Amino acid sequence: MIRGFVEVMGNAGPSRMEMLHREGTVEGYYVLVGPDREAGENNVRQWRDAGVPKWAWYVCGSDQDEDLARITELEERLDPVGWCLDIEKPLEGAKLQTLIAGVSAFGKQVVASLAAITASHVNYDYRCLDRFKVAIDWQAYFDSGEGSTPAVAVQELYQSSFVIPGWEYRTAFAGKYGWGKAMRVEAEQRCLIDLYQRPGPINGYFAVAPRQWGWTVVSRSLLDVTGQAAGVLMGRAAYTNIRVTLDVTRTAEARPAAEWTPIAASARAHGANRRPVSVYLVERTSNEVLRAIAAGGG
Prior knowledge:
Oligomer: single chain
Number of strands: 16
Largest sheet: 8 strands, parallel, barrel
Strand order of the largest sheet: 1-2-3-4-5-6-15-16
CATH architecture of the largest domain: Alpha-Beta Barrel
Strand content: 25-35%
CATH superfamily of the largest domain: Glycosidases
Mean pLDDT: 93
Distance between the termini: 7 Å
Number of domains: 2
Helix content: 25-40%
CATH topology of the largest domain: TIM Barrel
CATH class of the largest domain: Alpha Beta
Shape: globular
Radius of gyration: 20 Å
Order of helices and strands: EHHEHEHEHEHEHEEEEEEEEEHEH
């Protein structure tokens, strides 16, 4: 089954939403609730018109305290299955402790909807999302030229192919999973990494090569300060927490339904299990396409 983004419940159709859920195509829906959008306000008023599992979909701004106050009010009013937080431009590079800790305190599922060319292009606070076990639902705008294919979206989250000095990445080192910060790159094109193991700000390094900006990861093998292999550089999200959103609202909407099954199935790291898939937007997608995507999703 899949999850579906719904911007306007009236256009998606409550009876249609129920039918798709009842037949096993759609597990549940991310329904827009704001802020400051007429569609979201209407959805709040019509929230109980569709008897299906609904996550409250909230588009976050830069003021986390203000957003948390609004979300808390909506939580009490709507009692959704969980929260889908659209965390994009306003919160790039920002620490997310206030927002994520506050919403996680409801004790419900929390999903972060993120987007960019790839996960290596933007510096969201993945470490905070990881700490609170927030699922990352990455938007794949693969037909519009704005983003990656589903497979690349998953791969970049799980195993970064290039790094930016100063950014944090998940690691496995000396038998432990943790986080490390890519530090400076030395002349011999090795990137030093701080794994937060004190004393000392540098615990190892890995091989890189220059690119237009950032550094291509030549080898994800982490070597300790003596040059011995001791671990591996990973990505920015745990594989178990990765979902993929297929955007079918742009040039992708012209694809025949049959093409969507292998596209949905490709949303995974090579040789791994299929990933859970979401669809943006339900009201712009035919039942046939939704069923085809559900057949390929994990």
